TrEMBL record:
Keyword Oxidoreductase set for record: yes
Residues in Pyridoxamine 5'-phosphate oxidase N-terminal domain copies: 25-153
Keyword Oxidoreductase: yes
Protein name: Pyridoxamine 5'-phosphate oxidase family protein
Amino acid sequence: MERGRPVGELDPRYSSEGAAALDWERARSLLVAAEVFWLSTVRPDGRPHVAPLLAVWLDDALYFCTGPSERKAANLAANPHCVLTTGCNSLGRGLDLVVEGEAVRLADDAALRFVAASFETKYGAPWRFDVADGFFRSGGGTAVVYRLAPATVFGFSRGEEYGQTRWRFR
């Protein structure tokens, strides 16, 4: 269920003269289509940790997974605040998105089956997961699944006009 369309606020300090705030639908479309995201978490000692991963946008949130013994899972267990970013590495064009929020573990098997089907639809058969006992299972391994509902999303557009848009969620 969509929580509604947040209104974008342009920050003129980081935007070209005459730039306009981006429409949320453009940002949401990029979150749906993006293949690679970067997850930023904080280690228990305060040092940052960043790692690439796959994610799917469903029901106004990003879903991602990681092994239960990986650094990402340990960091999120200690501090669920995190950031997922995606975008383009080109200076002269593109849109980068920074999604801030709290990652919440998803352990309901019915919900996990829906998310697993979405991963396979988006990324293909190599990303097919079985679901059992609150985990994704594949190739003998298990993965913990998280839901990141955005608190704030920043959009950084580049090209003929540069702009920084912020969307806040309640």
